[in-house]
């Protein structure tokens, strides 16, 4: 029996076994719902279409996999498809733009990984696609990596109420505020802010969003911390449960400020993690340590809070342990006077 299947394509073998019995079908169903199609391996006669729930493929493979099904509709050809993971998306002339209107009405998850290029690649079009004709959008989770989203004031687009989870890179803090305007149903927001232009003046701190998890990473020197703090407390005081913050400021944010103005005002906060670098001098480390020795810090951070001074830049870094982020800034042989609250 094995010799009869030896020369047959793998997908045909699986389909043959699927036809044997319902029980066998149920046993192997979990292993064929997620399909990863590497470049050059797209088979237009793919026979497991009725079972596939997640497809991972390169952007340039989209036309090979879906073009033949355009007339009948993707939904009919892939009735169980709920997630698409696109990789190696070029910053220009990407194929996904042509297919986005097809994906919106039935996908629940869309992950997009752009090609890493030198310099900043600002994307002005992706969110426009999300925000147009939002009555038919079913996407709940959207993730975009290695492309910085620039959110302009949009005249013809409307809020998208289906998206509840987002992982995005945005151009500035101003664009984060705009993002909240267009995604009012967000519960999880993982955002990296590339630049900080002091353009929040006059911007309201009131939003319809009620986040449960807010992962905020700011990659440049941040001047809008007071506005961010007011935004979080004013809108998420009763909803926020998890708050990791990674930022650099030109002024001191010590433990007393974090505890009294931020943490104590978040009624349902279960976990607060941070990495903060602030412009100061080496003598201020003792003061910073003292502000992190209240009952709150000692009880909730048994591993302690770590501090170190960056000799060349005059910045002092403080962060909670265990470390919650995927990178350090300014790490070299210029670190001195590293201390721990424990």
Which characteristics define this entry?
elongated, single chain, disordered N terminus, 342 residues, alpha/beta, 14-stranded mixed sheet
Average pLDDT number: 80
* Count of extended strands: 14
Oligomer: single chain
Q: What percentage of residues falls in helices of 4 or more residues? A: 25-40%
Unreliable parts:
1-8, 40-47
> Helix tally?
12
What is the alpha-carbon Rg in Å?
A: 24 Å
Q: Which range does the strand content fall in? A: 25-35%
Distance between the termini: 67 Å
Query: How does the overall form come out from the CA principal axes?
Result: elongated
Biggest pleated sheet? 14 strands, mixed
**Class based on secondary structure composition and strand pairing:** alpha/beta
Task: Give helix and strand order, one letter per element, not per position.
Answer: HHHEEHHEHEEHEEHEEHEHEHHEEE
Protein model, in words:
With 342 residues, this protein is of the alpha/beta class. It has a domain at 33-115. 25% of the residues lie in helices and 27% in strands. The chain contains twelve helices and 14 strands. Strands 1, 2, 3, 4, 5, 6, 7, 8, 9, 10, 11, 12, 13 and 14 form a 14-stranded mixed beta sheet that branches. Strand 5, helix 7 (126-131) and strand 6 (141-149) form a beta-alpha-beta unit. The radius of gyration is 24 Å and the shape is elongated.
Sum this structure up briefly.
The protein is an alpha/beta fold. The chain has helices at 2-5, 10-18, 22-29, 62-66, 74-77, 96-103, 126-131, 173-182, 225-236, 255-262, 285-290, 295-300, and strands at 34-36, 54-58, 83-89, 109-114, 122-123, 141-149, 165-172, 188-195, 213-222, 242-249, 271-279, 305-310, 315-320, 335-340.
């Amino acid at each position: 029996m094995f010799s009869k299947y030896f020369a047959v394509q793998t997908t045909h073998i699986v389909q043959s076994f699927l036809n044997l019995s319902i029980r066998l079908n149920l046993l192997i169903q979990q292993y064929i719902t997620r399909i990863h199609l590497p470049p050059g391996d797209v088979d237009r006669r793919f026979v497991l279409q009725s079972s596939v729930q997640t497809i991972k493929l390169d952007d340039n493979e989209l036309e090979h996999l879906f073009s033949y099904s355009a007339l009948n509709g993707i939904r009919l050809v892939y009735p169980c498809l709920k997630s698409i993971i696109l990789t190696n998306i070029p910053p220009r002339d990407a194929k996904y733009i042509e297919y986005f209107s097809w994906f919106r009405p039935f996908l629940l998850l869309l992950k997009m990984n752009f090609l890493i290029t030198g310099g900043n690649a600002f994307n002005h079009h992706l969110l426009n696609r999300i925000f147009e004709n939002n009555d038919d959008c079913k996407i709940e989770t959207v993730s975009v990596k290695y492309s910085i989203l620039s959110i302009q004031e949009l005249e013809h687009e409307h809020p998208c109420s289906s998206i509840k989870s987002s992982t995005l890179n945005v151009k500035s803090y101003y664009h984060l505020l705009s993002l909240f305007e267009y995604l009012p149903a967000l519960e999880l927001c993982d955002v990296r802010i590339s630049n900080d232009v002091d353009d929040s003046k006059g911007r309201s701190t009131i939003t319809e969003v009620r986040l449960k998890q807010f992962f905020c990473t700011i990659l440049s020197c941040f001047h809008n911390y007071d506005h961010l703090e007011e935004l979080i407390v004013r809108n998420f005081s009763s909803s926020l449960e998890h708050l990791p913050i990674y930022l650099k400021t030109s002024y001191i944010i010590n433990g007393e400020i974090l505890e009294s103005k931020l943490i104590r005002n978040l009624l349902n906060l279960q976990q607060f993690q941070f990495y903060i670098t602030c412009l100061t001098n080496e003598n201020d480390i003792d003061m910073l340590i003292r502000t992190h020795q209240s009952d709150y810090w000692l009880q909730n951070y048994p591993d302690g809070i770590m501090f170190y001074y960056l000799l060349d830049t005059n910045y002092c870094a403080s962060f909670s342990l265990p470390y919650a982020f995927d990178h350090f800034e300014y790490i070299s042989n210029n670190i001195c006077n590293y201390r721990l609250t424990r």
